[in-house]
Amino acid sequence: MLDEECRVFEPADRFLREVRLARGRAESTTKAYAHAIVLLLLWCTITGRDWRTAARDMGLFILWLRWTPGRGGQHRIVVPGPGTKAVRGNRRINQVLTGIRMFLVHAVGANEAPAWVLEQIYELGDSLDLPLEAQGESGGMRVRLRARHHLQEPETDIDRASDEEVVAMFLACRSARDRLTVLLLSRVGLRPGQTAGLRRSDSHLMMDSRALGCEAEGAHVHIIRRQNENDAWSKSKQSWVMPVDFLVVQAFDQYVIERHEVLGDEGGSDFLLVNLFRPPCGAPITTDAIGELCEALSRRAGLGRLVTPRMCRHAMASNVVDAGGKLDEVQALLGQKHPSSPRPYLHPKESRLRDAIDRVPSPRLHREGEGR
Ligand SMILES: [Zn+2]
Prior knowledge:
single chain; mainly alpha; 2 domains; 14 helices; 5% strand; globular; Integrase-like_cat_sf; DNA_brk_join_enz; Integrase_catalytic; DNA recombination
């Protein structure tokens, strides 16, 4: 990271190295932190502040973030403020603030910034505003640190893709590779990064994979976080085994034939999904390409809305539960660590809600049934 005179800005550089290497965060996280620090330094330069003590004016920084376009003033607007559209929304500002908090905590720990900075960015809160699960067994109130500057973010509801939409997208595919991709998103529920990161050696599609040195039963794929050349990144830290059904296995088989026809025996890398129809042939597809495929398929299938990979993942989770799956099963299948993480993914089918009501016996019938 370079400062305005293009010298390496040491404190930030040390921090980012630690984030990336010691704590093993994603490259995208490191980039987001770096961008946050650049914004802070820019603001400090423009307003003549010292970054070490700028935390006392976080409120002003937030205003600046909200209303200053571009990289801090090339495109200065005359009267920034309410009435015009904010340049950065609350979610984006919170991301910047998170990066800056992490950076300042690191700087205080390394004696590069005074300790009172922590009081400026954190305040003491009690544990009562935490979710029940995090409050602990004792029921007593505990004191904890809470970020002082945090903006309300609107809840964004993500809809599931309907089964009809998924089928229409599947039918709109022009290759076996794209059909497999649609199933990996909507039936296996993988994220784009996990899909693009799959290797051929991750798929164990036979009933018995012991010959390959794998004890897992039935057809499955392994979801593993790796540093990939196509930047595909699994959001889950842990690896897990994802069972796949006959439909998915069939799609795999058809894709293997298609891939072989284009690339031959030796063709391509160990990546599962590779370029077949445009150069460089055999190179892994990117995470972005999966989003673009969904866009193209939504359009081609005439869905009238954009069905994203995330909506496909929601469809998978909801279908599992609609078919009688339990919450802990969905959690494991989505590769999630926390029991509450699957909740936003669930969109109960209307008929299931109807059944839930119908199962409750009428009180009158109940009394009649008891016999007088
Ligand atoms: Zn296996």
